[in-house]
Amino acid sequence: MRKKFLPVALLFGIGFLLFAVCGGVRMAEHAAVFAQTEEQKTIYLTFDDGPSTVVTNRILDTLRRERVRATFFIVSDRALTRRETLRRIAEEGHAIGIHSASHDYGKIYSSDAAFAADVDECARVIEEIAGVRPRLYRFPGGGPNKEEREQKELFIRERGYRIVSWNAVCGDEEIPYADAATLVRQSIATSKGKRSVVLLMHDSAHHAATADALPAIIGYFREQGYEFRLFSESLAPVLP
Ligand SMILES: [Zn+2]
Question: Which of 25, 68, 92, 180 could form a disulfide linkage to 213, CB 3.0–4.6 angstroms apart?
Answer without folding.
Answer: 180
